[in-house]
Design brief:
Layout lengths: L1 H8 L1 E8 L2 E6 L3 E6 L13 E7 L2 E7 H4 L12 E9 L2 E9 L1 E8 L4 E2 L13 E7 L2 E6 L1 H4 L1 H11 L10 H4 L7
Parallel strand pairs: 2-11, 5-7
Antiparallel strand pairs: 1-2, 1-8, 3-6, 4-5, 6-7, 9-10, 10-11
Length: 181
């Protein structure tokens, strides 16, 4: 019975490379993997947002995950791809593409296989990580995509609902109020 419980608690993760480091995301958040193709740049977006793609009629933002995690932008190669993930924001599901240098494999980890992230040394913000898993002689950083993409998801939600954005301050609001003497 105990072996059945361990097998039931195992989860699958997609592993991929970014700047020669291996990362993993819960396979349940991955919608699909597509070949890196034409990405339309959008002026005024953060440096880690490469632009948007047309995914079967939907506009999907594409995030350079290496840059988002503080690494150098990886040069594109024939193995470069876009991993389409679905993340949660305030009860809504948001689809985003993330650039990966290469996809490796789908691997299973049990909760015991994933250690809490160390307080230093990973070079990745701790709230972006669910932990670190050991595979053979190497380590895999297990990302929490909801945390990693929360600001992009918030920006996408704000763009979809501009009426909910606060009004910009008017010039009159910046002027001092004159009181009669």
């Amino acid at each position: 019975m105990q072996n059945d419980d361990k097998a039931a608690s195992r989860r699958q993760y997609l592993t991929f490379l970014l700047a020669s480091e291996e990362y993993a995301v819960d396979v349940l958040s991955v919608k699909e993997i597509i070949e890196y193709g034409e990405v339309t740049t959008v002026p005024g977006t953060p440096v880690h947002v490469r632009g948007v793609i047309n995914l079967r009629g939907s506009v999907v933002p594409v995030v350079d995950l290496a840059v988002k995690l503080g690494r150098e932008e990886s040069p594109l190669s024939r193995r470069s791809c876009i991993v389409i993930v679905e993340t949660g924001l305030q009860g809504e599901r948001v689809v985003t593409g993330v650039v990966a240098d290469a996809v490796n494999q789908v691997i299973e980890f049990s909760p015991d296989d994933i250690e809490p992230p160390p307080a230093f040394g990973t070079g990745v913000r701790l709230h972006y990580l669910d932990g670190i898993a050991k595979t053979g002689g190497s380590f895999v950083l297990v990302l929490n995509m909801d945390s990693v993409l929360s600001d992009e998801a918030h920006g996408a939600a704000a763009a979809a609902h501009p009426a909910e954005l606060p009004e910009p301050a008017s010039l009159d609001a910046a002027r001092p109020v004159e009181t009669p003497a």
